[in-house]
Amino acid sequence: MKTLTKTWLAAVAAAILVSTLTTSAQAGDLKDASQIVNRTNEAQYYAANDGRALVRMKIVDGKGRSQRRQFAVLRRDLKDGGDQNYLVVFDQPADVRNTAFLVKKHASKDDDRWLYLPGLDLVKRIAASDERTSFVGTHFFYEDISGRHPDEDKHELLETTETEYVVKSTPKSSKGVEFAHYTLRINKKTFLPSKIEYVNAQGKVYRRIETAKVDTVQGQPTITRLKVSDLESGGYTLSDVSNVGYDLGIPDDIFVEGSLRNPPQKWLR
Amino acid sequence: MKRKILDFPIQHPRLIFVGLAALAIGLGAAIPGIQIDTDPENMLSEHDPARVFHNQTKDQFALHDLIVVGVVNEAEPEGVFNPASLGRIHELNERLKSIDGVIARDVLGPSTMDNIEQAGPGTIRFEWLMEEAPDSPEEALAIKEAALRLPMLRGTVVSEDGDSVALYVPIESKDQSHRISEEIEAIIAGFGDHTDEFYITGLPVAEDTFGVEMFKQMAISAPLAALVILLLMWWFFRSFALVLSPMIVAMTTVTITMGTLIASGFPVHIMSSMIPIFLMPIAVVDSVHLLSEFVDIYPKTGDRKAAIKEVVGHLFAPMLYTSLTSAAGFLSLTLTPIPPVRVFGVFVALGIGIAFVLTILFVPAYIAALPEKRLTALLSAKRDASEGGLLGRIVEAVGARSLRFAKPILVVTVAAIAISGYGISQININDNPVRWFKSSHKIRVADRVLNQELAGTYTAFLIMKQDTDATAEIVAAGDRALQGASDSIRGRWDALKAEAEVHSEDEVSNVADSLIEATSDLVFDTSGEESEQWQSVQTALEEAQTRSKTFQNPEHLAYIERLQEEADALPLVGKTSSIADVVKTVYRELISGEQKDYRIPGSTEAVAQTLLQFQSSHRPNDLWHLVSPDFRESAVWVQLKSGDNQDMMSVKSELDAFLTANPPPEGLRAQWAGLTFLNTVWQDEMVGGMLESLMGAFVIVFLMMVLLFRSPVYGALAMVPLTITIVFTYGLIGLVGKDYDMPVAVLSSLTLGLSVDFAIHFLERARTIQTETHDWRQTMSLMFQEPGRAITRNAIVIAIGFLPLLGAPLVPYNTVGFLMAAIMAVSSIVTVVLLPSIMMQIQDRLSPKKKSAAPGIDDTPASIATNKEQTA
How far is A78 from chain B (nearest CA, A)? Predict the structure, then answer.
């Protein structure tokens, strides 16, 4: 079923591609902002059915002092644009090695999250809260890693350029968010965002996420270098993704509490 | 030569007027470009090691100066923890963030802080403490309970008793704090009717507000003093036209001096703002001497040009010398290591020079140019003026008695000196910028209330630092792991090191991280034995890196914990905070949420993972206010309930003693920073510096006196009034328990300058008269005529003239006003009463065996003529 959808989507995309080549550039453009954002959400967070990646993050503060984080991520989608499971296992710095997160992401309710701290030999459930807390001290928010649900915002197509859609997204509820709205620049072909800018209540851009590099892995356009900048403090986090694999057949039964203490090494490398 | 200088103004008064007006207007034009600098930090040179370290610390730990906004509610049973009050606090908390100059991301308050707590068994929750204002009293209380459970907030954001709340507003620069505090007040004013009380304080607000008030005082106090001086002189000299001249001299002197200061690009610091107040009496004193003599001599001849020539000729030398000695007194301030005090010293000295030149040039020109009828008025009032009226009779009577009771007076003086000596030993060296405001000022009120409610609004930082080179140690661990490895592998390793070195310079990363990343890649990219070898290098590097994180080590955290316990036990310390508190709090919530688990976990890894959780909050960067990202430097925040320098000093010495008795592990170095601490550094330099400069000035003035009188005995005599005045005033300060602070310290140089002025005039005149009378008793009774009156008049004019300063809302101005009066009173009394008594006792040593030539400084026949007339 899922594969069918994918194939169908690919066919449509190909048709659009062909049509853009043959007719005017505007002919195949999407007009509905929500539709564009949904496609982006899928392109960025739901590529293939499952995936694996090694992520290296370098955190640089406003004074140029750096720290880093390195972890492996396993993902399996239950439904495109819907529920999915994540397992994150840290490797660097060495003093947090084997710290692990398990996330069962739900489209219609709060995510279930667990945490394992090997140094404390402790598995703990993390209660739901807003998702705009820092992801392990980086400039990314938890929500940037797991994806913000498109339904939480109202989307408005501001502009369609030669290569990009420009969408303004305004939160339906200001609870739990620090921004007034954000602007997404979305690549028309890949549907991956090239730049996201967050605007505060004073109308100032205070935060920016930029795609620095996109590679096609197993036919999937994949962001392999992403930079998030805190424009107020001058700090930023650079995220490099390598060792990407899709449709590895990662079984659903590894996304369980037991994997926190004993990570499935077979799938992690 | 002197003749020419003296004749010039009388012959060309217009030229003098136009010249001075041009100078005053030209330089005065620079005054509107004034730049105010009220930052006490600038009392230290920019390169002062303590200040450099303080600023490094601020930068390293991203610390900003804080405005403290306290909210107290006495009317509600739960204090501010009711929905309405918290609603206002929430609104304030949110709106603060958009004030220009406020560092929004670091604002501390219930709405911008995270709570971490248990959310059911085995579950932990991170959330905003107060994302929205509560709807019900229960929710309000829940917020209080949560906040009180967080050591970082307890006593800081929420008072210990759970009744009040404080917001901490970090600002980009101190010189904006007055404006920002006004904007905060405006938000509060918009809240309408309520029972909450809002208080705003903090060192930056105090300092910046002081600048604003200081500016007002320069426009109010100094001119008011000038007005009082003018009225007093009018009363003494009975001629408004005449007494206008000293005022013009004073005003022009101040205008030219301040104009020069500002035009030279110096900011007007708290010290320099007092230049007008210091220059005014000095400028007036010389003119009063001139006028005093003029009104005595002029009526006798009726020839004003001759009279003024005679007076100036006669006073030129003593005025030159008093100006030189006063200038020397102030120039000695350049010996202090405190930049604003040096600027102050140089420009007051310059002002004294200007005042002298103006007196010599302007006053004669002014008198020469006065319309005839103004002076006729003087002739008719002359009896009163020259006989001195009531004042004259008093001076004369006191003088006569003082001669009769010479011995008792000496005894009383010795006793007074002894008591003053005791007073000096009781002097309390202390300062606190908040105390520069009167006790009733809103900043002082806020300071009192908030330091009672909260753990303390004054902060100092004890910085613990690991000095060794972490990178070198990590690289060395890699080297060791490759001992005995093949040449090719070691070659590869050397290349990696070189690459990492280049990499760390090219982009932001550190050598250790690059090496670990590179070796971990090699572990994957190679196979078999080589892969294993790289694995061992990677492990060695990682172990060394983990070891290098000093403040993730439980042993070091435990040391900090002990240090904090020691500090917390001190009564002046309201609270301390450190990385250890964060670790313990997060650990407690991770384990059980119960107090028994409020402790430091057992391994570096456990600490690192605990902190990783803290970093998953809304405010991960709060960690870097307590520890550096490499975990090799940590800041212990010490909150004090008092910003008094001596309180800071006592806390510092207690903790320094602890550090000495219990040395920190593995060569950790401890060093102090923070505004509260920095104030003690410049105070220290100031007290030492002032003492040194006073001593220096004392010696210089003594040598000048010996030179002036060509006699060591006269030189020593001239030092008597100023010595006693200094001893007495500072003894008084010690006895009444007034803190020895910045203004008090600087006044010593003024004492030196003004007291020696009276002594020079008195001694010079006495000697001149004695050479004619050859009899000391007769000389002294003559001295109690015009010379005694001139000194007494001067003293009264200055002493009363500065009383308006007592009305200023700023304590340093009150201090200057009070001490000025005391200095004038003591030095004039000592000069008029004590000097004659001493001189009578040692008259044999004063008069040369043979009749000698005139006293060197004054060889004009005019002075003798004057004295003859007076004798007649």
Answer: 25
Q: What percent of chain B has pLDDT over 90?
A: 26
Amino acid at B31: I
B258: closest CA among B362, B353, B347?
B347
Q: Residue B100 phi/psi, 5° resolution?
A: -60, 130
Q: Best residue in A90, A92, A96, A120 to probe B by mutation, most B CBs within 10 Å? A: A120
Residue ranges, chain B, pLDDT below 50: 382-386, 849-872
**Are B815 and B802 a contacting pair, CB within 8 Å?**
no
| CATH number for A238 | 2.50.20.10
Q: Which among A56, A67, A95 has the least Cβ separation from residue B604? A: A95
Q: Which of residues 699-728 of B touch A (CB under 8 A)?
A: none
Q: In total, how many domains does chain A have? A: 1
Q: Kindly state whether residue A15 falls inside one of the protein's structural domains.
A: no
Beta-carbon separation of B126 and A61 below 8 A: no
* Residues 6+ positions from B651 with CB-CB distance below 8 Å: B460, B567, B570, B572, B573, B638, B640
**Residues forming a β-bridge with A84:** A77, A105
Cβ atoms within 10 Å of A204's Cβ, excluding its own: 12
Chain A residue closest in CA terms to B542: A94
Q: Is residue A187 in a domain?
A: yes
- Rounded to the nearest angstrom, the minimum Cα separation between B575 and chain A is 27
Between the two ends of chain B, the Cα-to-Cα distance in Å is: 31
Q: Please tell me the distance in Å from A188's CA to the nearest CA on chain B.
A: 32
Predicted local distance difference test score (pLDDT) of residue B872: 31
Chain A residues with CB under 8 Å of B514 CB are: none
ipTM of the prediction greater than 0.90, yes or no: no
**A1, part of any domain:** no
Q: Does B119 touch chain A (CB under 8 A)?
A: yes
Query: What's the pLDDT at B381?
Result: 52
Residue B214 is predicted with a pLDDT of 79
* Contact yes or no for B261/B271 (Cβ under 8 A): no
User: Does the distance separating the beta carbons of B617 and A134 come in below 8 Å?
Assistant: yes
Lookup: tokens for B54: 């303080």
A222 inside domain: yes
Question: For position B754, what pLDDT does the model report?
Answer: 73
Alpha helices in chain A (DSSP H): 2-22, 33-45, 142-146, 258-261, 265-268
The predicted pLDDT at position A115 comes to: 92
What are the distances in angstroms from CA B766 to CA B62, B775, B783, B841? 67, 11, 6, 15
Burial class (CB in 10 A: 0-12, 13-18, 19+), B193: exposed
pLDDT attached to residue A13? 56
Instruction: Output the average pLDDT for chain A.
Output: 87
Extract the tokens encoding B467. Answer: 């000095």
Domain span at A53: 28-268
Helical segments of B774-842, H only: 776-783, 786-801, 811-829, 835-841
**pLDDT, mean of residues A18-24:** 43
Q: Taken in order B801, B803, B809, B811, is the CA torsion positive or negative?
A: positive
SS3 B457: coil
CA distance B605 to chain A (A): 5
Using alpha carbons, select from B770, B785, B737 the residue that is nearest to residue B845.
B770
- Taken in order A18, A19, A21, A22, is the CA torsion positive or negative? positive
Interface of A with B (CB under 8 A): 56, 58, 60-68, 70, 91-96, 99, 115, 117-120, 122-127, 129-130, 132-137, 142, 175-176, 201-202, 232-233
**CA–CA dist A68, B516 (Å, integer):** 11
